[in-house]
Specification:
By secondary structure, this protein is α/β, with parallel strands linked by helices. 53% of the residues lie in helices and 8% in strands.
Length: 280
């Protein structure tokens, strides 16, 4: 495990979650006969940190499927940032990703990922492949749909670049600073970390159901918007589906619901969330 400041970063998802030290750690590649993450667990034990910190790490779907993540969870892993490299458009790797995400969900480990819609071979077909992949990752409503729309490197269709520029503005309510996707990720992290701290929370089951429904709805609206906009732009060279007068009436009620849901949860559980807990 790397212990320099470039590899170990303190993270706090919420100032309300006192007692939780959240680390971002780098796991070495899996070695023969040694499960993924063994180096981190050994180092945490040597440093006297096992049972005192929660941590996250990056991994590939194959790392997850190779086994050992139950042990990592028992030793503080609460979030996995899954590498999606090479997955879009590859049926075999997509199956591996789906299986890995399902396993992480069963273990109660949060899933994160990074994805640029226009990186790699910039084509409308590539955008479709990435959207199809994201639908599998976020299918159960516990992972918010997230992506970036960075400038396209290299030659591409003028229509594709026009679509990218229009899309980048249209999806700001979801993936922009303070957007719905970030708020949903924060809300899921708060509840998972609080549960791992064994805090005495009230109404957790109802909150989870409401949060899952909102995440599902938000993901569906966003991904349908991206897909429909891409399809129309590819066919006609333009689209009104991404105009503000159509976007805002859809996005604003979702944002209001998110704020109300989180405020209610914090109001009911404020004292518990400010208490110290024991990591499990």
């Amino acid at each position: 495990m790397d212990t320099d400041q470039g590899s170990v970063v303190l993270r706090r998802f919420s100032g309300c979650l006192h007692g939780a030290t959240l680390l971002t750690l780098h796991c070495d590649s899996r070695r023969p006969g040694e499960p993924f993450g063994t180096d981190v667990v050994k180092q945490l034990a040597a440093d006297g940190l096992l049972g005192h910190v929660l941590w996250s790490t990056a991994c590939t779907p194959r790392d997850v499927l190779a086994g050992g993540f139950q042990v990592l969870r028992e030793n503080g892993l609460f979030l996995a940032r899954v590498d999606l490299s090479g997955v879009p458009g590859d049926p075999g790797r997509l199956r591996e990703l789906i299986a890995a995400v399902q396993l992480l969900r069963r273990l109660g480990i949060l899933v994160e990922y990074e994805l640029d819609l226009f990186a790699g071979a910039p084509r409308f077909s590539g955008v479709r492949d990435k959207i199809a992949m994201m639908r599998y990752v976020v299918a159960d409503g516990t992972v918010p749909a997230m992506f970036t729309t960075g400038p396209i490197e290299g030659p591409c269709s003028p229509w594709l670049d026009g679509y990218r520029r229009q899309l980048a503005i249209a999806v700001e309510p979801w993936i922009g600073p303070g957007g719905l996707a970030g708020q949903l990720a924060q809300a899921w992290a708060e509840i998972v970390v609080a549960e791992r701290l064994m805090l005495a929370l009230s109404g957790v089951a109802a909150h989870r159901i409401a949060l899952q429904r909102l995440t599902l709805r938000t993901n569906t609206v966003l991904l349908d918007l991206v897909s429909a906009g891409a399809r129309e732009y590819e066919t006609t060279g333009g689209t009104r589906l991404l105009d503000d007068d159509l976007i805002l009436p859809v996005a604003e009620p979702l944002a209001a619901r998110m704020i109300a849901l989180r405020n209610n949860f914090l109001q009911v559980n404020g004292p518990a969330l400010r208490a110290d807990g024991s990591i499990r």
